[in-house]
Amino acid sequence: MNKIDKELANSIRFLSIDAVEKANSGHPGMPMGMADVATILFKNFMKFNPEDPGWINRDRFVLSAGHGSMLLYSLLYLTGYKTISLNDIKNFRQLNSICAGHPEYVKNSGIETTTGPLGQGIANAVGFAIAEEILKKQLGKKIINHKTYVLAGDGCLMEGISHEALSLAGHLKLKNLILLFDNNSISIDGPTSLATSDNFKKRFNSYGWDFIEIDGHNQKQIYNALKKVQKSKVPSVISCKTTIGYGSPNKSGKETAHGSPLGKDEIDLVRKKLKWNYKPFEIPNHIIQEWRRIGKNNSRNYKGKKIKSYTKKLFSNIIKQEKKNYIKSNEAIATRKSSQIILNVLTKKIPKIIGGSADLSGSNNTKTINHKIIRPGNFDGNYIHYGVREHAMCGIMNGIALHSNLIPYGGTFLIFSDYCKPSIRLSALMKQRVIYVMSHDSIGLGEDGPTHQPVEQLSNLRSIPNLVVFRPADTVETFECWELALSLKNSPSVIALSRQKINPVRKKYEPENKCASGAYEILRTGQNIQLTILATGSEVDLAVEVSHKLAIQNIYSKVISVPSLEIFNLQSENYKKKIMKETKYKISIEAGSTDVWKQFIGENGICFGVDEFGKSAPGKDVFRSFNLYKDYIVERTVKMFK
User: Fold this and answer.
1) Closest CA to 351 of 327, 368, 333, 331
2) What is the CATH classification number for the domain harbouring 85?
3) CA dihedral sign of residues 622, 625, 630, 633
4) What was the pLDDT predicted at 447?
5) Closest Cα partner for 128 from 113, 111, 110?
6) Which position among 7, 21, 266, 390 bears the catalytic label?
7) 390 given a catalytic annotation
8) Are 235 and 165 in contact (CB under 8 A)?
9) Of 466, 496, 526, at which residue does a domain stop?
10) How confident is residue 425, by pLDDT bands cut at 50, 70 and 90?
11) What is the pLDDT of residue 1?
């Protein structure tokens, strides 16, 4: 490696070493090992503009091996991003520092995504690459023509999500995707041979990827490999054989360089070996100037351009019209079908909505007559067949949302939200508008049995900060929940939908989006009431039946539909008091875990729900076996008043 490139790489190494040492926490080994590769990439190939980090046509650099976050922070500081200062680096892993222990997404900062769980960054990168191809078709390759680079380590490739994402990327022939594999053969427990003996070349070739092996410390090999993959017709991986903790006399090539500081004595030895005669955090002026020149030079093709976003008014107008259309029939249909009805219109009028399903399109009803399928090498479409890959689907959707103004939604069964949980959590952490369409939302799905019947899933999802969970009661509520999900620019959402048909509970046209309150009164059997009945989804219709039968016994009540507890909790205290505090007695009805409802009904109330696994039988029989039927609920409620 020539002298200047060696110094550029060493500046990354020592910023990383010094930051980890000062914090007394972190992973110095990966930045030390991949500094040469990162230097050649950013110097000669990356297209970016530190003055406009949000440039739509920039190349994306995703650090999937997020424990090596100091590699990314060093690159951003050195190339001139205003978001990362030297003081930020000195405050690595400290409270409120942008330089967190693992990269945390900050819009327009140069940090493209949050990568804590290994493998997630690979799935995000596939999403970035898909989004780039879609926008290239929509806007033209003069406006959109960039690459996505993802740096992944041995741990990323061990995680199952990597298999799912890499397989789909190869199938779709994502030629704009380049994976840099930090092949250092070390994990926290020791050499990777303790746990894996994969043949990476055969693995990637089987996915349909090009595979190149290089010495990750050889400048010429790094440059030639990166140059070659620029014109690849399929996704490419460059396996960079590196030494973790490169330059450390006693810790290089060992797990001791992975997850803890090197220590002062060892750092002194590294400085001596790499001939770095500078104090901690000191970067000589000529190196800083060269890095800043690289930052300016790599923005030479910069053209600032904004792309169209969509307003809440547009969504609202579409929903109002479709409510009018549906009210004419008031047909009893499953809410998964209701969702498809509104998607028929939304996907026709809003091309930035990108749908998909994890091999359940016909069950989730996520695919419409207006969808065009995205196929290998052909991205003139708006629907992705993800295959049986829930893990990857959700991570990929995060990448699509992060890339630009595309709005991804993807479907699976609610029970499989457990497979999706890490990605859903990251959607919420990053405040991304990702919509998870999850059908078969209760024991009402019936014969498939307890393996497919969600019980605790709604409670689990409701516990995730900044995730909005919708469970609509009928077609009108489903339309309204879609409007709200599309309008939530800083939150992901789950729309939980029924398999079974549901009678309409909203039978008159009302222009107002009542679901926007999170909970609202849907029925009142008397002016002076003694009971509040809370219900969601398919159980709202049951709650209405219960309310009417109680009225015959002179127990008057109101039924509150609760399509979203998260949105309800955002309402004013006066509104919440009006909904929840009018009566001493309350009951809740939801075909799932009762945990979340206990906070509302109090000691005097009853939660009707399911706190054990389901059963295999027709849906109505399963409901009855768990005492979720009108006569039982009425009988128990009457006793409550006695």
Assistant:
1) 368
2) 3.40.50.970
3) negative
4) 97
5) 113
6) 390
7) yes
8) no
9) 496
10) very high
11) 67
